[in-house]
Structure formats: C-alpha cells, structure tokens
Design a protein that fits this description.
Structural class of chain B: mainly alpha
Mean pLDDT of chain A: 85
Strand content of chain A: under 5%
CATH superfamily of the largest domain in chain A: NADH-ubiquinone/plastoquinone oxidoreductase chain 6, subunit NuoJ
Oligomer: heterodimer
Low-confidence stretches of chain A: none
Strand order of the largest sheet of chain B: 1-2
CATH architecture of the largest domain in chain A: Up-down Bundle
CATH class of the largest domain in chain A: Mainly Alpha
Low-confidence stretches of chain B: none
Structural class of chain A: mainly alpha
Helix content of chain B: over 70%
Number of helices of chain B: 20
Distance between the termini of chain B: 34 Å
Largest interface: A-B, 25 and 38 residues
Number of domains of chain A: 2
Largest sheet of chain A: none
Shape of chain A: globular
CATH topology of the largest domain in chain A: Four Helix Bundle (Hemerythrin (Met), subunit A)
Order of helices and strands of chain B: HHHEEHHHHHHHHHHHHHHHHH
C-alpha cells in the first residue's frame, strides 16, 4: 500500500462521512460547513489523481465562491425555525430517493460490470493532461473557439442580468 | 496564426455578426438615447451577415480545429436566422416605441441570440452545440421578460428560464454519456463510432437525453407545456422570433446531431421521434381549436408544425432533410408575417388578441387582412402557398421511409388545422365589425411583411428556388 492509496482511503472516508453529516444536520449553517469539508476532500482526491487544475478550481470556485453564496443565502433567509427543514415523508422525498438510488445503480453498473468498456487512460497520460499548463495549452489551441464563445455567453448573461435587475432604467 | 486568420475568413457571417453585436453594445453604453443608432447598426449587421451567408452557400469547410462547419448547411440556416432577426428587429422597433420602452439592449440581445443560433447550426462538436444553445437561450430568457412591469411577461420569463435550465441539465447529461461511450464530442468521431456503440445502453440513454432536450427546444409533445404560456406573455415580436428563429435553430441542431452525427434510419431512436411527431401533430392541432387568444392559438399551431417537421427527422432520408430545410425557411416567413400583423392590431394592454377582435377587419384594412389571410392559408398548407410544399416534402419522406401511418396522421391533422386558421379568415371577411389598427404600421415593418407575403406565394409556386439551394450540402 503506497502513500497515494492511503491518502485516497483517508480522504474518501472523510468525504463520505462529511456528506452523511451534511444531509443529516438540522442546522443549515452546520450542514453548509460540512459541505465545505466535503469539497476540500474532493479536491484532495482530485490531487491524488494528478488533476491539479481541477483540484485548485474545486477549492476556488466551490469551496470559495459558491459556499460564500450558500452561507449568505442562509443568513438572508434567517431560518429561525429549524423544524421547517425536517419535513415528514412526502412525495418529493420519495421521488428524490428513487432518483438517488437510480443514480447509484447506474454508477455501480458502469464501474463494476462495464469497467472494460470505459476508455482507459494510463497514469503518465493523466499526469500530463491534469496540469494547469496542459489545460491552458488546450484552451488556447484546440479549444480556442469554444473558449471565445464562452466569453460571448457570459457577456450576453451580464447584459441580460443588468437589463432585468437594474433598479431604475433611464 | 495563419490558420486562425484563415478560419476567421471562413466564418465571416458569424464573426461579422459578433463584431456588430459588440459594436452595438459599445454604442449603447456610450451615452443616453442611443437606441436608434443601436437599432440601425443591428439591422445593417443582420443584412450583411445574410448576404455573406448567401455567398458562402456553395463552399463547405470546417474551421477552428473542426469545431464548426461553415458554408453550406450552416450558411443556409444562417440566412434563415438573420432574416428572422431582421424581421424581429423591424417589428420590435414600432412595438417598443408604442410602449415607450425602447432600449438598445433589446436589439443587442436579438443579435446575440442570432449568433447563438448560427453556432447551433454550424456546430460539429457537442461543446459548440451546447454553447450555442446557451447563448441563444440566455438572450431569449431576458427578451421574454423584457417588459419588467408586466406580470404576464415576468411569469413567462421565469417559466421559460426554469424549464430551460432544467433542459440544459438533460442536454449536458446526454452529452456526458455520449462522451463516455464514444470518447469524443466531435460529430465525426461519434459518426464513426455509431455502428459499434448504437446498441449500448449508456449511449442510448445519452441519445434519449438529447431527444428530450431538443424536443423541449422545438416545443414538441410531451415537452411542449411551456410554449403557450411563454408565447402569450412575451412581447409579440419576440414571440415571432421564438417561433421562427429559435425553432429553426433547434431543428438545425436536431438534424445536425440525429442525421449528421448519428445514423438513425430504422432504429429505435427513429421510432421514438416518430411517436413524438405523431403526438405533437395531434395534440397541437386539436388543442389549438379551443383557443380564443390568437397568440396561444399560434403557439399550439407551432407545436403542430414541430410535429410535421419531426416526421421528416424520423424518416431520416434525403427527402426528409430537404423537406425540413424547405419547411423551416418558409415557416419563418409566414409566421413572422402573421405575428407582424398581430402586433399591429394588438393594444398596449394585451387586448385585441382574440378571434372576435378581428370581425370586419377586411372592410377597414383590406390590404392587411389580405396579407394575414395569405399567411394563414400558407400555415394551413393550402396550395399554391409555400406551406403546402413544406408538408408535401416531409410527408413524402415519411411514406418513403415506411412510416405511412405517420403521414396519414399528418394529413388528417392538417385538415383539422384548416378549421382554426380559416376561422380567423372568416372573422375578417364575413363577420360585421369595426376591427382596425390603432395607428398605421411603420413603413419599414409594413414593407417587410409585404415582402414576406410575396415570398410565401413565390416559394409556393417555385419551391425549387429553395430546394436547389439545399442540394449540395445535405447531411445524408
């Protein structure tokens, strides 16, 4: 058992544990904090897979920006009555549970029974493509066009948001 | 570097329209009261892009590392999108001025939406397809809800946004599963791997997700529920844009993926699409009968038209593809025209949109009534108008692909549709009343709608004018 495998199991255990804690907490702020821990573990797992870039982005975007948004929304909503978060069994919950089980079965099917059908990448290749340098190179060569189109998409979204949300239009 | 410059030259219709959109945005931001300048810049941009698309019809080349295919198919659709954006810009101007809410961003967003549509038609990679759909949709969410003080507009924008975002999830999940089985997002690689993977459950699941996402975008049953509400609440010129440009773009992507990247002839996917087509034709036409609001009636009619065109995709043969291209080109003209006349009769507070409001219209406005009648006859598919040949081609394709039952449903439901189209014609000509327009339509809008009517008649008499354009570049 090498260091990588030890790290993987360690991070994986904390990952699953924090996910369970997150969905079972009643206090939304505590749940959000467990989600942050969960995101950090995921970033660690990315690192053990040599995906440096995704690991950094995971922390910056998810653990950073998106979690700040979450915590802000929780504070703005000011949920004083915590019981509201724990409803009785409802139709929605049954559907959600069914979907989760379906996803679990689908993933098990792929990774247990159809492992051989999946395209495989060897370790050296994954080290090569996981770096910031390689992603940057791809982004500005092969994927230059989608990259530029994304900027148009963001521009249109910004203009739209201003048009819809600005308090006074003159 | 040289290839980059060459790629930019290859995709001039797209690049030019993007530059025009950016310039228009800068002009709008440079000071107050620039809406008129933005309008003219956008208008000139769409015309220039239309001409460039027309000129590049006969050269088909991939650009930007096989991300998009320019010329041919993309150019044909580019002409439809720019024409639709052009018509929408003209109709919007008088509409917004009447409501005193003219703003430059409205025109800019129409141009950006047209860019998204062009990306959808030229994509030969699922990533570009996704980005194109998002560029178009985000602009449309805003345009639908542009009249912020109107409750119905807010409702329809929110409904469209939430359902659209949900559909994006299906689209991305589908793309991810296809990437997982094929190992590439490029159409060429998917097409090469298709025979090997077409029976793998994961691939079929991915393709089914794409069918759901596209069915939503073209408003086909059972993913049509948003269409009537959104069409009704949106500003009428935007309803025209959504029922023409957006629908054409969604079909361009649908055809590009299912007839270009996949070979679905005789497969399960083709059967699924045939069922959606049949359901759209039946539900669209039958429910349209009971509508009293004309915008809702045209929304259900557009669901039915999506059904007719889907039968062309399900047939998956050359006739089917020609039929869809012809259908979309002419459908754009007739629907833009019909919504144009509707937007002149409609009052500021969303009244004068029912059948009864058109009683006696021909006596007061004989020319406008005649124009609207031409569009309605064409939508009903009555010869010699262009709508007839669109239906003829797609039903012919269905018969050739041994889908005779689908063609029979199509013909029967077309007969049903004649009832509600001609009901409006009858209202205008045979019912006494004083329906008229509040103020005469702006000269340019009037000329544009008249031209659309002339083209509808012209393409109905000489359908080969369009069909000949499409011969070079069909996917199958």
């Amino acid at each position: 058992m090498n260091v990588e495998t030890i790290f993987f199991y360690l991070l994986g255990a904390v990952f699953v544990g924090s996910a369970l804690m997150m969905v079972t907490r009643r206090n939304p702020v505590i749940a959000a904090l467990y989600l942050i821990l969960n995101f950090f573990c995921l970033a660690g797992i990315y690192l053990t897979l040599h995906a440096q870039f995704i690991a950094v982005i995971q922390i910056l975007v998810y653990a950073g920006a998106i979690m700040v948004l979450f915590v802000f929304v929780i504070m703005l909503l000011n949920l004083s009555d915590e019981r509201r978060l724990s409803e009785a069994i409802s139709f929605k919950k049954i559907v959600a549970g069914g979907l989760s089980v379906a996803l679990l079965l689908e993933l098990l099917y792929i990774f247990v029974y159809r492992k051989t059908d999946l395209p495989t990448l060897n370790a050296e290749r994954s080290i090569e493509i996981g770096t910031v340098e390689s992603i940057g190179r791809h982004l500005f060569t092969k994927f230059l066009f989608p990259f530029e189109v994304t900027s148009i998409l963001l521009l249109a979204a910004i203009v739209g948001a201003v048009v819809l949300a600005k308090r006074r239009l003159d | 570097m040289e290839t980059l410059v060459a790629d930019i030259w290859r995709s001039t219709p797209l690049v030019l329209l993007t530059l025009v959109g950016l310039i228009a945005l800068l002009v709008e931001g440079s000071g107050k009261g620039r809406a008129a300048a933005v309008y003219w810049i956008s208008l000139v941009g769409t015309i220039a892009s239309f001409v460039l698309s027309f000129l590049s019809l006969n050269t088909e080349e991939a650009a930007f590392n096989d991300m998009i295919l320019q010329g041919g198919y993309a150019a044909f659709f580019g002409m439809i999108f720019t024409a639709s954006a052009f018509g929408t810009l003209i109709l919007s101007r008088s509409y917004l001025r009447r409501l005193h809410t003219e703003r430059g961003e409205f025109y800019v967003l129409i141009v950006f939406a047209a860019i998204g549509m062009m990306l959808m038609a030229s994509a030969i990679d699922l990533i570009i397809l996704f980005l194109g759909i998002e560029v178009m949709s985000i602009c449309l969410y805003v345009l639908v809800g542009f009249l912020r003080t109107k409750l119905t507009a807010n409702e329809s924008a929110l409904k469209y946004f939430l359902l659209g975002a949900f559909t994006t999830g299906f689209l991305l999940y589908g793309i991810a599963l296809i990437y997982g089985t094929v190992g590439s997002t490029s159409f060429r690689a998917i097409s090469a791997a298709f025979p090997a993977v077409s029976n793998q459950p994961l691939f079929l699941l991915g393709a089914a997700m794409l069918v759901i996402a596209f069915s939503f975008k073209v408003a086909a049953v059972p993913f049509h529920m948003w269409a009537p509400d959104v069409y009704e609440g949106a500003p009428t010129p935007i309803t025209a844009f959504m029922s023409t440009g957006t629908k054409a773009a969604a079909f361009a992507a649908f055809v590009g993926v299912f007839l270009g990247a996949f070979q679905i002839a005789g497969s399960k996917l083709s059967e699924v699409i045939a069922l959606a087509a049949a359901a759209s034709m039946i539900i669209g036409n039958v429910v349209a009968i009971s509508q009293s609001n004309l915008k809702r009636m045209l929304a259900y009619s557009s669901i039915a038209h999506a059904g007719y065109m889907l039968s062309g995709i399900s047939a998956a043969n050359r006739e089917g593809e020609t039929g869809i291209l012809f259908y979309l080109a002419t459908y754009t003209l007739m629907n833009l025209g019909a919504f144009g006349v509707l937007s002149w009769v409609e009052q500021k507070d969303d009244t004068k949109l029912t059948f009864d409001d058109y009683a006696g219209f021909s006596a007061q406005q004989p020319f406008l009534a005649a124009l609207l009648s031409i569009f309605l006859f064409s939508l009903a598919g009555i010869p010699p108008f262009a709508g007839f040949f669109g239906k003829y081609y797609v039903f012919l394709a269905a018969v050739k692909a041994d889908l005779t039952w689908l063609a029979i449903i199509g013909v029967l439901t077309s007969v049903v549709s004649v009832y509600y189209y001609l009901r409006l014609v009858m209202m205008m000509y045979f019912q006494p009343g004083g329906a008229t327009v509040e103020e005469p339509p702006a000269q340019m809008a009037f000329i544009a709608v008249t031209c659309a009517a002339i083209l509808v008649v012209l393409f109905g008499i000489y359908p080969s004018l369009i069909v000949d354009l499409t011969k070079e570049f069909l996917n199958i």
